[in-house]
Amino acid sequence: MRSKIVAGNWKMNKNLEETQALLTELLQKLPETTAEVMVAPTFVNLAEAVKATAGSKVEVAAQNMHFEESGAFTGEIAPGMLKSIGVTNVILGHSERRAYFGEDDALLKKKVDTALAQGMRTIFCFGEELEQRKSGSHFDVVESQLKNALFHLTESDWKHIVLAYEPVWAIGTGETATPEQAQEMHAFIRKTLESVYGSAVAEEVTILYGGSVKPGNAAEIFSKPDVDGGLIGGAALKADDFIGIINGI
Ligand code: PGA
Known about the structure:
By secondary structure, this protein is α/β, with parallel strands linked by helices.
């Protein structure tokens, strides 16, 4: 059975004190759930998050990392640094990294390879822009994002990959894909995986939906058979909202 995951991407929000406060509240209120729960605070607060969540069900992820293991890359963070503080999950390819920091499929491929070589689990984000959906090219766009960055992987590599379909037009906009649109794309992604890797791999890969998931729409989106949880932005910044979403799984 593939895992269900609810992951909170805090983006560039929450200072140290706010990180501690949100984690304390989250841990106090965390419901019983079979889903994995993950939070991704900013780099400077990752060590604190690892400490605060130690012994709990909550896992910690980084929002990005460099593909080299060390060197002259001012301002960057190496995978070994993350591992040395106990972080073994990393979000790669978020649309904000692609749009504002020029990350393309070729760069992401290198980052994924490094993450795998370092034994880290990758939450790989991808999804079409509004114009691409309007013109009907969204399936092609998604297929090529997957192909370019991931389809060189071996079958066993996929044990360490979580996919996060995040249509760009739904991120931070309040506009959510309908549960049917999410299911349609997730089923397409699984079918595409099956055609390359076979059904055993396709059935085991967790595919998250991201883009304006809220307590009020989470349960319906998560009820779809190919939606295995969510990557949550804005609503992960309030413990009650994030818990409302976890309760939807
Ligand atoms: P959102 O962000 O929930 O605020 O739309 C989702 C994401 O960027 O992962």
